[in-house]
Write a structure and sequence with these properties.
Order of helices and strands: EEHHHHHHHHHHHHHHHHHHHEE
Mean pLDDT: 89
Number of strands: 4
Low-confidence stretches: 5-16, 21-33
Number of helices: 19
Helix content: 40-55%
Distance between the termini: 92 Å
């Protein structure tokens, strides 16, 4: 309500002023209702203010060192620091040791290009051969920790509170669905990288580092895995809704790398001949998602053996998702349902791409779906004060009670990570010591001056990924 005092002009100085005029009360200015496109934009690609991390440097160092230590001892057998597994040795290190840099980094593996592992192999082979296992593992661990940090930062738009962001970043390190195949291995960082790319595409960075680094990382992801094809629709959706320069660069980075992958496959330069059998069966995909992907996510790799003997136990895993949907209606929460639906669609979509191309369900193909399914639950259980500030509250309580569902989820994640910390793998656990093999091969090279190269094993005998050809000139 506004009160005005209007003066009356008069020669008489004693003349009274006019009575105050009272205007009718006015409603506070309201924000015009957003259209459906704007609501979708804000739900999937919210803007977040860049936060200073200088004061948190010590915390970051402690957390990342702890994550690295956690990863370092996960590999069974003689351990990751004294073995080289599968493509890391037979393809990346083998090619880097005997080819020129350009020829090696542009050589496809299994039907697509893997630029990032190829670049790391070029660096690794600069070291003595006996160090290759250690350097390769350090790169794998450092990359995994870095991706977890990127996901933590990129999730700030959807989850304001550190505990909530930790819930979507921690699985990158704690991964409990494919220990033997996808831990401490450079070739399989592509799966966590795809998850990182998903988060970078929904992250609207405000600082220079995020705006420049985002497209660079996304480009590297798309040049490292053909699965980045799944990110193209998300990049285009962001560009259509946000229509800004950053979205354009992210779309170019995603599409450019995917275009290189597709051209390699179509031209025959990158071929999958002899690798799997394409199985475009929607019923089989849904069945595998229902009975393998979801149970592995919420019960863990070790429990899958029990489920094989008792098939009905897959229902227990689905109860976690059902419970998350039901709890999301609690007024103390502010669930991000649209974002949860997006994450679920990507979990199913990526899983379908993987297994249709292969014709079976290897453990490593569960990594990305498991991360995204955890994201679904976190989005549904988002506490009110963890939502973006422009997301209207629902009127429920905002105290510590609103974090109880999230803490229960974190407890489940902690249990799964401990229960699946070291899981034997039928091929990887029994690998012989890398340093012992190198010592033996070095003696062979020294004893036979005519010998040009020797073989060091990176997998079971008589498998295509088991032989690393090392030039004798590197061992003499």
């Amino acid at each position: 309500m506004t009160i005005r005092h209007d003066r009356v002009e008069s020669d008489d100085q004693a003349a009274p002023t006019a009575p105050p005029v009272v205007d009718p009360p006015q409603d506070p200015p309201t924000k015009p209702p957003a259209g459906s496109a704007a609501r979708l934009r804000d739900a999937l690609f919210p803007v977040v203010a860049e936060q200073s991390r200088r004061r948190r440097l010590a915390v970051w160092v402690v957390v990342l060192v702890a994550a690295a230590v956690y990863l370092a001892f996960r590999t069974p057998g003689v351990g990751a620091f004294d073995t080289v597994w599968a493509e890391d040795g037979a393809d990346f290190l083998d090619d880097a040791a005997k080819m020129g840099t350009l020829e090696a980094v542009t050589r496809p593996v299994n039907g697509y290009y893997l630029l990032y592992p190829r670049l790391l192999a070029e660096i690794t082979t600069l070291f003595p051969v006996s160090w290759w296992a250690v350097v390769n593992t350090v790169f794998a661990i450092a990359t995994t920790c870095a991706m977890a940090a990127v996901v933590y930062q990129a999730s700030a738009g959807h989850f304001r509170r550190p505990l909530v962001r930790l819930a979507v970043a921690a699985p990158v390190v704690l991964q409990w669905v494919a220990n033997g195949e996808a831990v401490n291995n450079v070739a399989t960082v592509q799966f966590a990288a795809l998850y990182t790319g998903f988060w970078l595409l929904v992250y609207v960075a405000q600082g220079r580092v995020g705006r420049i680094g985002g497209p660079v990382v996304v480009a590297m992801v798309s040049l490292t895995t053909i699965l980045a094809l799944a990110l193209v629709p998300l990049a285009l959706l962001r560009l259509a809704l946000r229509r800004d320069r950053d979205s354009l660069w992210l779309t170019v980075a995603t599409g450019g790398g995917v275009l290189v992958q597709v051209l390699g496959a179509e031209s025959g330069a990158a071929t999958r001949d002899g690798i799997g059998e394409t199985t475009p069966d929607p019923g089989w995909v849904v069945e595998s998602f229902r009975k393998i992907a979801v149970p592995a996510t919420f019960l863990g790799e070790s429990a899958m053996k029990t489920i094989a003997d008792h098939p009905k136990l897959w229902v227990v895993a689905w109860l976690v998702l059902v419970a998350a949907v039901l709890v999301s209606f609690w007024r103390a929460l502010r669930p991000a349902r649209l974002f949860a639906a997006l994450a679920f669609a990507y979990a199913l979509g990526v899983f379908a791409m993987e297994i249709v191309a292969m014709g079976r369900v290897p453990g490593r193909y569960l990594v990305v779906p498991s991360f995204l399914l955890v994201t679904v639950v976190v989005a549904l259980l988002r506490p009110q004060d963890a939502a973006p500030p422009d997301d209207p509250p629902t009127g429920g309580r905002r105290g510590l009670a609103s974090y109880v569902p999230l803490v229960v989820l974190l407890g489940l994640i902690g249990h799964l990570s401990v229960a699946n910390y070291r899981v034997d793998h039928q091929s990887r656990t029994g690998l012989p010591s890398w340093t012992a093999q190198v010592d033996e091969r070095a003696h062979e090279c020294q004893d036979d001056p005519a010998l040009r190269s020797v073989v060091v094993r990176s997998g079971p005998e008589r498998t295509p990924y088991s032989r690393v050809n090392v030039p004798c000139e590197r061992l003499r």
